[in-house]
Specification:
CATH architecture of the largest domain: Orthogonal Bundle
Number of helices: 15
Distance between the termini: 112 Å
Helix content: 40-55%
CATH class of the largest domain: Mainly Alpha
Radius of gyration: 33 Å
Strand order of the largest sheet: 1-2-3
Number of domains: 3
CATH superfamily of the largest domain: Intergrase catalytic core
CATH topology of the largest domain: hpI Integrase, Chain A
Order of helices and strands: EEEHHHHHHHHEEEHHHHHHH
Shape: elongated
Length: 346
């Protein structure tokens, strides 16, 4: 029923009968009260939920934890991403999730950039937070809008992919040969010979070196890949460690970092050990390798990543020379205009 009360018009009904849930709400006008009454009665008549939805008071940390429990725990880097996003939620002040707007996301990005965070890292942070809302929405655990979906990533210049020259490789190997760490030289040679990531080579098991081949397991994209080895490197690896278990028992990253400095090699930020993978790929293309084979060796899921090295191929865009317009060159010699006298030219 609808009745007049001191503060307005009250709707009081039990759509499900005596045992059903009682619905009470007060409206300013009789018209609003009647519309609500008819809405609830109509929903109940066709068997649909009629109770007004409760306000979602979950905070960003709650959603991040729910994302991890439902999905993140299955990811290879799930723990790392969970830790990073929990920290991001704290930096944002752990707001109620329904109150976050696209402008909040933009202001947060601006704050991160002002704090000196690299733009590429900021893009990754935004993408991970966006993924939290997207995943929970697909699971039916989030019904609101995704505040991070409207924020376009920052446009960045293509990163410089530095590789070592043959002279730099020689200098590096010479320094590594004098290192007290017995593993670091072999890990470096393995990365240069197969294009492996440092972590793949560092954690290699002895059982994975067989028949002049190495098989990398537990890779970034979860796909195993097998690559032939040069005879001398294969024999050295077989003789180096145990027959079963981790081939390299020490953590060689610090020794490699020191060797890079001692060899006087300058590298861009973030490419300390990854330069070995870039070096393999770059020399592979410069020596005439094809990009499809390189994709399989590196284990890239899409050709897009591998195409970053295509420009190093000897014949890459060679048609630019072949088909470009022919422009006469004078090499500093002045040609006389038609009708110009010889005395004028002198």
């Amino acid at each position: 029923m609808i009745r007049k009360v001191k503060t307005g018009w009250q709707v009081d009904l039990q759509p499900g009968g005596r045992d059903g849930r009682r619905v009470r709400r007060i409206f300013k006008t009789q018209g609003e009260a009647k519309r609500f009454h008819d809405y609830v009665a109509g929903k109940a008549a066709i068997g649909e939920p009629y109770a007004p939805k409760k306000r979602d008071r979950r905070r960003l940390l709650d959603l991040v934890q729910l994302w991890y429990d439902c999905h993140g725990v299955t990811l290879k880097d799930g723990k790392r991403r969970h830790s990073q996003m929990m920290a991001l939620a704290e930096i944002m002040g752990n707001p109620v999730a329904t109150t976050i707007t696209p402008m909040d996301a933009i202001r947060f990005r601006k704050q991160r950039l002002a704090d000196g965070i690299h733009p590429n890292t900021v893009n990754h942070d935004q993408a991970h937070l966006r993924a939290v809302f997207n995943r929970l929405s697909r699971l039916g655990e989030w019904e609101g809008a995704n505040p991070f979906a409207q924020v376009q990533p920052l446009r960045l210049d293509e990163p410089e992919l530095t590789y070592l020259t043959e002279d730099e490789i020689a200098r590096l190997v010479q320094v590594l040969e004098d290192s007290p760490n017995r593993d670091v030289l072999l890990i470096t040679r393995l990365c240069l010979a197969t294009g492996a990531r440092w972590s793949e080579a560092q954690t290699l098991r002895a059982e994975m070196v067989r028949d002049n081949r190495v098989t990398y397991t537990g890779t970034k994209n979860r796909r195993n890949r097998t690559i032939p080895l040069p005879d001398d490197l294969y024999r050295t690896l077989v003789d180096h460690g145990p027959r079963i278990g981790r081939l390299f028992r020490t953590h060689a990253y610090e020794a490699f970092s020191k060797a890079i400095i001692d060899a006087e090699i300058q590298l861009p930020r973030g490419q300390r050990t990854h330069v070995l993978r870039h070096t393999f790929a770059s020399h592979f293309m410069m020596n005439g390798g094809d990009v499809l084979t390189l994709q399989k060796i590196l284990g890239h899921q899409t050709i897009t990543m591998t195409m970053r090295y295509a420009h190093l191929s000897p014949d890459h865009l060679a048609d630019a020379i072949k088909f470009a317009p022919k422009v006469p060159t004078t090499f500093g010699t002045k040609k006389s205009r038609p009708g110009q006298a010889a005395s004028d030219r002198d």
